[in-house]
Amino acid sequence: MGDMLAGKRGLIMGVANERSIAWGIAKALAEQGAELAFAYQGEAFGKRVEPLAASVGSDILVDLDVTDEASMDTGFAAIAKRWDRLDFVVHAIAFADKAELAADFRFKDTSRENFSQSMLISCYSFIDVARRASEMMTEGGTMITLTFEGASRVFPCYNVMGVAKAGLETAVRYLANDLGPDGIRVNAISPGPMKTLAGSAIGAARRTYKHSETNAPLQANATLEAIGGTAVWLVSDGGASTTGQIVMVDGGYHVMGMPRVENL
Questions:
Q1: Looking at the DSSP assignment, which residues form a beta bridge with residue 61?
Q2: Please, how many CA atoms are within 13 Å of residue 54, restricted to the half-sphere of its CB?
Q3: What is the reported pLDDT for 49?
Q4: Are the beta carbons of 39 and 62 closer than 8 angstroms?
Q5: Which residues have a catalytic role annotated?
Q6: In the prediction, which pLDDT does 263 show?
Q7: Residues 205 and 182 sit within 8 Å (Cβ to Cβ)
């Protein structure tokens, strides 16, 4: 336990279970003294998040649907009732139709409905969250989202999520420019392939994970602890001059080059 973040308060969005990247970040932030609130969507996820939140001393849980304006209004109002300010937000939310991430699905067949929903949940929701959270960041703050290198290179089966993440990374830069004068930093953390609930929906996830573990310079994939440590740095005073960045935490995966799909 440390006190690097003592006195800081932040919202964690997107914890699904104890293997979630969002949980790895939340745990690391709490270990450095941060106070946390958690947002979840729906009763099923609420039941998963509640014991995890309790384990880090949090009793602020809000049911928040990023696709519903009224839910967003109600959720942020509930947080504002408990806290007079926010110091950081961790946005770990993304979605695409699993059928369109399957090994036999071709990107050209992406449906209009799935494209719209994927962009809304995976990209626009961060902009919407940033607008609301920034109003509570009266003393400056930090916003963190999660991306993946499929935003800039073709990865097997990543399909529409690559397009959504590309939009998200661009949003990070525009938000950083927008909010910088208010003392608010905006960054994305980009882990390599991870064994998470969300990652398992991608058709080639196991092959990509194994390939990166074998071929990355550090011959290992990122760990939750490493990603959490990066988030601590970004939220702390150590990250005071870092904004608008895509921070890689991937064992060097981004420097090794990606083989063609058939070679995986």
A1: 38
A2: 6
A3: 97
A4: yes
A5: 158, 165
A6: 42
A7: no
Q: Which among 111, 186, 102 is positioned nearest to 145, based on CA atoms? A: 186
Give the pLDDT confidence score for residue 66 in this predicted structure. Answer: 97
Beta-sheet strand order (sheet of 141-146) = 61-63, 35-40, 9-13, 88-91, 141-146, 184-191, 246-249
Two structure tokens written together for 208: 């990509």
Are 157 and 100 a contacting pair, CB within 8 Å? Answer: no
Can you say how many angstroms the Cα of residue 13 is from the centroid of all Cα atoms in its chain?
8
Ranges of residues in the chain whose predicted pLDDT is under 50: 203, 259-264
Instruction: Match 């960041």 to its residue by tokens.
Output: 137
Separation CA 172–CA 150 (nearest Å): 16
Query: How would you write the chain as a 3-class SS string?
Result: CCCCCCCCEEEEECCCCCCCHHHHHHHHHHHCCCEEEEEECCHHHHHHHHHHHHHCCCCCEEECCCCCHHHHHHHHHHHHHHCCCCCEEEECCCCCCHHHHCCCCCHHHCCHHHHHHHHHHHHHHHHHHHHHHHCCCECEEEEEEECCHHHCCCCCCCCHHHHHHHHHHHHHHHHHHHHHHHCEEEEEEEECCCCCCCHHHCCCHHHHHHHHHHHCCCCCCCCHHHHHHHHHHHHCHHHCCCCCCEEEECCCHHHCCCCCHHHC
Q: How far apart are CA 84 and CA 33, in angstroms?
A: 18
Task: Please state the pTM of the whole predicted model.
Answer: 0.90
Tokens of 101: 């991430």
Neighbours of 255 (CB within 10 A): 10
